[in-house]
TrEMBL record:
Family of this protein: Belongs to the FliS family.
Record's keyword annotation contains Acetylation: no
Descriptive protein name: Flagellar secretion chaperone FliS
Organism: Paenibacillus barengoltzii G22
GO biological process assignments: bacterial-type flagellum assembly; bacterial-type flagellum-dependent cell motility
Record's keyword terms, sorted: Bacterial flagellum biogenesis, Cell projection, Chaperone, Cilium, Cytoplasm, Flagellum
Pfam families (alphabetical): FliS (PF02561)
Amino acid sequence: MKINLQAQNNYLHTKIQTSSPGQLTLMLYNGCIKFIKLAVQSMERHDMEGKHLNFVKAQNIIDELQATLNMEYELSMQLYSLYTYINEKLFEANVKLDVNAAEESIQLLTELRDTWAEALKLTSNGEKVKVQ
């Protein structure tokens, strides 16, 4: 089991080191959605420690997404506000055990992730995506 975990960690480390910034952003969206879903599952099992741990991981990812924004663009300012809203919803879900707030966060992040994935496809096909 220890060898399997080490192999997984090595794979993830290599994947992160060789990914483009766009792919890394996509991985952050996927990770955030995963942690929120795990937090909701923990709530359903009355596992308050697991709930809290996973919501905090999701919030840390949102903080990272905010920190990487280039605030010279209007879109970045709008994303910053959206990330702040999502972080507030995650805090609410964690403290008030509000599944609806968690589900709203998942929905918003899924839309962002899907849009980001489509933009990556367009840029990899030689088409340019202008962000301003």
